Amino acid sequence: MTYAFVKGHGTENDFVLLPDLDGSVHGALTDSEMADRVRRLCDRRAGLGADGILRVIRTADYDGPDRPVSDAEWFMDYRNADGTLAEMCGNGTRVFAEYLRSAGLAGDEITFATRAGDKTLRASGDIWTADLGSPKLLGATQVSVAHHFWPAANVDMGNPHAAAEVESIDPEGPVGDLYDTPVFDEDVYPRGVNVEFFARVAERHVAMRVFERGSGETRSCGTGACAVMVAAAEADGLAGERDADVTYRVDVPGGTLQVTWTTDDRILLAGTALLVAEGTTTL
Ligand SMILES: N[C@@H](CCC[C@H](N)C(=O)O)C(=O)O
């Protein structure tokens, strides 16, 4: 079977988009067949290569796991490179919105469904800003790599994060090459976790690396950048009531994101979204 794909990325967190505009292209697959297809597509040697898949489907046509309850026309069916489902993908929301705009299916503002609820995005030129809703600060936890241990903030952005402040994110330092999953508390995160390491660059400016659940180390993670911002802001005493919005610059290996925590407790993630290729595949 041959079907269409589009390749895109947000700060080099890359995705294969699968337009499934009437639900008939991938809808006939069982869950395990779909997971196999995702792994084949994301394979960086034998496939197209991606950190995850964004299936573009009408909410009413989606009949798979975690069916959203939403009046929004479109559903972002996100899957990690290992075939697992995730609730949310921050960079993915921008790339998904850019696809809908470029296909003439949306304008500069759109609300669509995700497994973590409806999300609204607005574009200004090639920068999309996603309103990812209120973060949940769930206390302190711990992560470790190669017998180095760090306290981490447990932040829920719709999906789970452990954000650890470190002296340096240099791969030559204690954080290392992040080939393997950092050790985390499985009682706190029974369904796995995305682990971020961040270091201070300047006031309200941090740099991070991430090991993503289901994808390994990636060049960027939007919800991870939000979790890092929330952890840094909490450490800076800004997690309580704010009388003005607070913005942090978050550098990732693939670029730069801006994260704003508003006075009404919403997290706004701003960054680029680029579509770089389209074609057909038999994978
Ligand atoms: N890269 C994404 C997060 C994708 C999901 C994550 N790996 C998970 O399993 O929760 C982002 O930009 O937020």
In words, what does this structure look like?
The chain has 283 residues and is mainly beta. The protein has 2 domains: 3-131 and 273-281, Diaminopimelate Epimerase, Chain A, domain 1 (Roll), CATH 3.10.310.10; 136-265, Diaminopimelate Epimerase, Chain A, domain 1. The chain is built from 3 helices and 18 strands. The strands form 2 sheets. Strands 5, 6, 7, 8, 9, 10, 11, 12, 13, 14, 15, 16 and 17 form a 13-stranded mixed β-sheet that branches. The chain has a 5-stranded mixed β-sheet with strand order 4-3-2-1-18, with helices on both faces. The radius of gyration is 18 Å and the shape is globular. The mean pLDDT is 97. Ligand LBFN2T5F binds next to helix 2 and helix 3. It is an enzyme of class 5 (isomerase). One of its GO terms (biological process) is lysine biosynthetic process via diaminopimelate.
Low-confidence stretches: none
Number of domains: 2
| Helix content class | 10-25%
Fraction of residues in β-strands: 35-45%
Main sheet attributes: strand count, strand direction, barrel closure: 13 strands, mixed
The CATH architecture of the largest domain would be: Roll
What's the overall geometry? globular
